[in-house]
Design goal:
6 strands
């Protein structure tokens, strides 16, 4: 990952460790889609309690990573309306979990912009590990001043 790429992620998302869940952007097509990566490591704090003898990434964090990738796509699509503002997660629909995500996995998140009406954005997407779907969902977000 280049320093400019992490700076782009940090400039768009207000999240910081331990809640920043995007490590790299692999591909962005503004107005269409984004492919982002999250490296899942054993030293992440949630694995201490979820579950100590069988660590599994919580589904809500997979959904949060999908929402963060969506915010990055919104920022790439319309930087002027997103810069200096916050993309708030509004709703999640049709969430499905297909495969556990465990330490050592690389979560590949593919989000597609399906609709935008002013400051309301809709996305659909999937999260993969080893080319198998781990989760899928529809996400809605709004852009507001912080």
């Amino acid at each position: 990952m280049t320093d400019s790429q992490i700076q782009e992620i940090l400039a768009t998302l207000p999240h910081r460790y331990p809640f920043l869940l995007i490590d790299r952007i692999e591909e962005t097509v503004p107005g269409e889609k984004i492919v982002a990566l999250k490296n899942v490591t054993f030293n992440e704090p949630h694995f201490q309690g979820h579950f100590p003898d069988h660590p599994v990434m919580p589904g809500v964090l997979i959904l949060e990573a999908m929402a963060q990738a969506s915010a990055l796509l919104a920022g790439a699509t319309d930087p002027d309306s997103v810069k200096g503002r916050i993309v708030y997660f509004m709703s999640i629909d049709k969430a499905r979990f297909r495969k556990p995500v465990v330490p050592g996995d690389q979560l590949k998140i593919e989000m597609i912009l399906t609709k935008r009406r002013r400051d309301i954005w809709r996305f659909t997407g999937k999260a993969f590990t080893d080319d198998q779907i781990a989760a899928e969902a529809e996400v809605m977000a709004m852009v507001r001043d912080g």
